[in-house]
């Protein structure tokens, strides 16, 4: 007899909120083409779901057996698949995962993002009312607060499109469900990026509007300029959050202004340490039984993130080496006391790192270097998507490739060591995690909205191409950095000496 399959989601809220959320889910399941009927079973206090092809599922609302071991006001919504074929089970769980957040959960996120949540108060004239928005931002709770503020700034939800990057975030399905069910926003998956862009342009252009892109990783404009060049004129500007996104548009002739939050002083000085710390913390979370103190580590790339990753690893008592193809950055790493070398291959051969963290944003490490690693080594990426390591080369050079589930992918190199690429090569700081705390990321999210407003207003300082100096000026004028300092700077009563 096969054991039933179970999917459980913990939600925070009042008893009424939890009951309402479970009831909504039961109603959606009843409307699903893969579910024939949903009936309340009083004896088991659950909804019995009769599925296609004779399958059977069940939906129930439960409370923690040990309330002291869970956050206050925690409830668990449990979907159980009891009978049927794998395709029926997959369809049942796909529908059961679509749980928006409760009002209690949203209120908590709003309180953690005071700058982002109050953006509409800065511009009561709703400057985004005549603009469409196409967003490719990480699907975490903080994103919902940003979306709520953008709607408050005048964006029509019918003219907002979100691209789900399909990372395994901690709450990715719930974020998608909230966007669709609570805001009425259109969500497309990354695998259907071009189709999503075309659909967005068609909807927004039909309303006589043009759009601003808010991107995190350089997904939209390279696709538009290479595959849909005749549609490029629909967009009035691009806000980019990441350095990897900047690299992807550097070789393109941008016909519109780029508001570069990625290269701004604000992001570089405040956020980089948080990203590095989250990357290392998530790495250690996935490897709780490993001993890294005193071990060798290698950081690829000594930009803003790589610099901070090297420092965090050093604070973790690891012996840290750094490689960067840019000689100026390599000199900087050397003068900060890190082991360096002009040849990556030679540096790996002599340093023998068990932990390699890539922060370059492009192919930085392949099978030739991996063969020089010691046994039980780990490769970790902080780069958008899986671009940091040459995974195809590693696979081709391996005698066995093993899916380690949440941990990542194992590679047994032919005649070489066994290694694990954590998180399957995707950015480790987002791997089943929320990455930065909401209060930490608040300033950058607010900065993205500042950029969208400036582009929608056609600020004359923003010209086609990069606008780093103008970005810094506009962010400073917006007052969000001043507010951040007032919130988290010196306590009232005088500055620290």
From TrEMBL:
<keyword id="KW-0554">One-carbon metabolism</keyword>
<dbReference type="GO" id="GO:0006730">
    <property type="term" value="P:one-carbon metabolic process"/>
</dbReference>
<feature type="domain" description="S-adenosyl-L-homocysteine hydrolase NAD binding">
    <location>
        <begin position="271"/>
        <end position="435"/>
    </location>
</feature>
<comment type="similarity">
    <text>Belongs to the adenosylhomocysteinase family.</text>
</comment>
<keyword id="KW-0520">NAD</keyword>
<dbReference type="GO" id="GO:0005829">
    <property type="term" value="C:cytosol"/>
</dbReference>
<dbReference type="GO" id="GO:0004013">
    <property type="term" value="F:adenosylhomocysteinase activity"/>
</dbReference>
<dbReference type="GO" id="GO:0033353">
    <property type="term" value="P:S-adenosylmethionine cycle"/>
</dbReference>
<dbReference type="InterPro" id="IPR015878">
    <property type="entry name" value="Ado_hCys_hydrolase_NAD-bd"/>
</dbReference>
<dbReference type="InterPro" id="IPR000043">
    <property type="entry name" value="Adenosylhomocysteinase-like"/>
</dbReference>
<dbReference type="InterPro" id="IPR042172">
    <property type="entry name" value="Adenosylhomocyst_ase-like_sf"/>
</dbReference>
<dbReference type="InterPro" id="IPR036291">
    <property type="entry name" value="NAD(P)-bd_dom_sf"/>
</dbReference>
<protein>
    <recommendedName>
        <fullName>S-adenosyl-L-homocysteine hydrolase NAD binding domain-containing protein</fullName>
    </recommendedName>
</protein>
